Amino acid sequence: MYAVVEFVNQESVASLLEEAAIPSVSHESMVPFKSRLLSLRNVGSVASPNQQPGQQCQPQTTIPINELIQRLSREESIDQQITSLTEAYQLTEENSRLRFLVCSLLKDIAAAYFPECNIKPFGSSVNGFGKLGCDLDMFLDLDGISGRNIKMPKSGLCLEYQMKRANSERAVTQSILSVIGECVDQFGPGCAGVHKILNARCPLVRFAHQPSGFQCDLTTNNRVAMKSTELLYLYGELDPRVRCLVFTVRCWARAHGVTSSIPGAWITNFSLTVMVLFFLQRRSSPIIPTLDHLRDLAGPADKSVIEGNDCTFVSDFSKIQLHSNTETLEQLLCGFFEFYAAFPFSMKSINIRKGKEQNKPEVAPLHIQNPFENSLNVSKNVNATQLDRFVALCQESTWLLQKSETNTPTPTPWGLASLLLPSQVAGIKSRKKRRREPASERIKSLLESLKNKNEQKTS
């Protein structure tokens, strides 16, 4: 069992560290790396202190799906169900602080080589869309190292640090992560299962941090991802419905295997989030602005160009004027499923920079343009089978929400709770071919057949 302890002053920390000993075991050799991760060891017959009454441990993972379904079934409306799901899944303040703590523990290791470096969380941990138990993405920031921005004299002598050179920036990134990864593996307390994935498009070191329970990915030279994190945070802050809808759609997708923690042909959480943002831009009265509009509102201080990519967008929220949209969360959830149940994926691309469908620039079942790296398709991994399942689930969910009774809460799963039942997946697989046509077309054909039968009877 682990606990996070904060101290009032530096003197208390120094006093504690002075009393801490390096373990001495006759049959083991210890690496004398001093970390702020300490252990308590009983060396005598002192009784262990009893837990204080009323003391509670903070959960660091989401509740089981069956328990969530029961909780949602007791709510009085679909809007309340969506709000309840968001509250149950979103990161707590304690969990967020724990993520920053883990980053600072890793910085202690990296600082041996780069004393002025910083390690920051990015992605779901800080963009406002992370759920309890999500991975911890970390960025080794070397841009803040002093000496980079010193003005060179026009003539005369200039004092420079002597440094190793490499063939490319990618080679530098791989070398840095290889060494840091080795240190994490050999010396990092609580770090286990270290894998150096250096030949990926974005090289990284993956490991488990056992005390916190986080699966961690450490990257460097990944500045575009940092800007994407800032953009998603901004969109989430503009309207509370944005985060609620993203959490709901993500939970629904995971319950049906649309997304997965294992790499493969599934839709990723990032792709799914962009799809939700695009849908909210496409409302008759848009709930959030396009990225191009946010760029047009930007001031000189907001200008950001990373590796030739325009990553500029406004940071002053007061400059953003939102449309008046009063749709409820229930209406938006129904609208999301209807929108993508009939979306022309075979011809059109999703683009939140423009906020409108565009012709696909490449042959891929699902094309979602990277907000900042325009030539990249963030959903290139998704195959036709997975996209068909997504569309079929959207059609099925539209039908389930339309037939849901919202008058009184019952123990039986209803509304959003009924969408999370895993039994729906098997039904969709067996009826896959029939479900390919939009739900509205199936209803239309059914009404036409009933009309024909009635006309035959009357004649």
What can you see in these coordinates?
The protein has 459 residues and is of the alpha+beta class. It is built from 15 helices and 9 strands. The longest helix is centred in the C-terminal third of the chain and has 20 residues, at 439-458. It is globular, with a radius of gyration of 26 Å.
Quick structural overview:
The protein is of the alpha+beta class. The protein has helices spanning 10-19, 65-73, 78-89, 93-110, 169-187, 223-238, 240-255, 269-281, 291-296, 329-341, 384-402, 416-419, 423-430, 432-435, 439-458, and strands at 118-122, 136-141, 191-197, 204-209, 214-220, 305-306, 309-310, 348-349, 358-359.
Helix content: 40-55%
Secondary-structure content class: alpha+beta
User: What's the gyration radius in Å?
Assistant: 26 Å
Could you give the distance between the termini? 79 Å
Question: Major β-sheet, in short?
Answer: 5 strands, mixed
Which spans have pLDDT < 50 for at least 5 consecutive residues?
423-427, 429-437
- The geometry reads as globular
Number of helices: 15
Mean pLDDT: 87
Strand order of the largest sheet: 1-2-5-4-3
Number of distinct beta strands: 9
* SS strand fraction: 5-15%
Reading the helices and strands in chain order gives HHHHEEHEEEHHHHEEHEEHHHHH
List keywords for this structure.
459 residues; alpha+beta; 5-stranded mixed beta sheet; 15 helices; 9 strands; 41% helix; 8% strand; globular
Layout: helices, strands, pairs:
Elements: H1 10-19, H2 65-73, H3 78-89, H4 93-110, E1 118-122, E2 136-141, H5 169-187, E3 191-197, E4 204-209, E5 214-220, H6 223-238, H7 240-255, H8 269-281, H9 291-296, E6 305-306, E7 309-310, H10 329-341, E8 348-349, E9 358-359, H11 384-402, H12 416-419, H13 423-430, H14 432-435, H15 439-458
Helix pairs in contact: 2-3, 3-7, 6-7, 7-8, 10-11, 11-13
